[in-house]
Amino acid sequence: MTVDPAALKVADAVGALMEAWGFRRNMGRMWAVLYLEDHPLTAAELAERLGLSSGAVSMLVNELAHWEIIKKTWVVGERREHFAAETSIWKMISRVFRERELRWIRSAHEAFAAAGAELGAGTRASPEARPEPRGDRHALIAGRIAGLTQLAEVGAHLLETMLEGEAIDSLPIKTVGELARAAHPDEPSDEPSDVAAAPGKPREPS
Predict the structure, then answer these.
(1) Is residue 170 pLDDT above 70, yes or no?
(2) Looking at the structure, do residues 75 and 146 belong to the same domain, yes or no?
(3) Counting runs of H as helices and runs of E as strands, what totals does the chain give?
(4) Which helix (H) or strand (E) is 82 found in, with range?
(5) Where residue 191 falls among pLDDT bands split at 50, 70, 90?
(6) Per-residue pLDDT for 9 more than 60?
(7) Residue 133: which residues within 8 A CB-CB, separation 6 or more?
(8) Is residue 194 part of a domain?
(9) Is the CB of residue 47 less than 8 Å from the CB of residue 3?
(10) Can you tell me the distance from the alpha carbon of 150 to that of 180, in angstroms, rounded to the nearest whole number?
(11) Cβ–Cβ under 8 Å, residues 72 and 78
(12) Tell me, what DSSP letter sits at residue 185?
């Protein structure tokens, strides 16, 4: 079976993107091959086009079906299973965001909040037992954990808002930037300071 070189080039590009996103490269390649076809393909046809073994194709098909990136279909007069690509890009992306990225952010938020609560409980239990230098370090850690907790909360809110198809106003985005700077107060900021540099005059290095 002759494969269009342009289709293979697209498949390789999609595979690289999928790999960078944490998936197998051949998952992206398989989806792209199906996406660029006008009819479903069998496992044998996929193996031939992608140069993969039947076992590798079977594994990839199961993984892609789990994410609902491809679906099994039947062709009239054929006994073999055929596969077709999900053609809604946003549907695929939003499913991954909802089941993976959002879950990661929520888990991180829970861990940050639990650590902050544990730290606060230790401070209330024996405030006099902590020397002043350690107390300063304790306060610094508590403040940065609080910043990370808020950052995760805002991140989850933004992702949930995006997945619901709602508009994202500028306030939460600005808050994310402020929280990120709060978590790393010693790092220089790329944003302009409150006092703007004179027109035509470069800003003095800090």
Answers:
(1) no
(2) no
(3) 8, 3
(4) strand 82-85
(5) very low
(6) yes
(7) none
(8) no
(9) no
(10) 10
(11) no
(12) T
Q: Are 91 and 35 in contact (CB under 8 A)?
A: no
- The domain of 107 spans 90-183
Is residue 73, in this structure, part of any structural domain at all?
yes
Q: Which residue has the higher pLDDT, 197 or 7?
A: 7
What's the chain's average pLDDT? 80
Strand order in the sheet with 41-42: 41-42, 82-85, 70-73
Band of pLDDT at residue 109, cut at 50, 70 and 90:
very high
Domain total for the chain? Answer: 2
**pTM across the whole model:** 0.66
Q: Is 176 exposed, middle or buried (0-12, 13-18, 19+ CB in 10 A)?
A: middle
Q: 50-74 burial, b for 16+ CB within 10 Å, e for fewer?
A: bebeeebbeebbebbeebebbeeee
Give residue 189's identity as a one-letter amino acid code: S
Q: Evaluate if residue 165 carries a pLDDT over 70.
A: yes
**Half-sphere exposure of residue 45: CA atoms within 13 angstroms, side-chain side:** 15
Residues 13 and 70 in one domain: yes
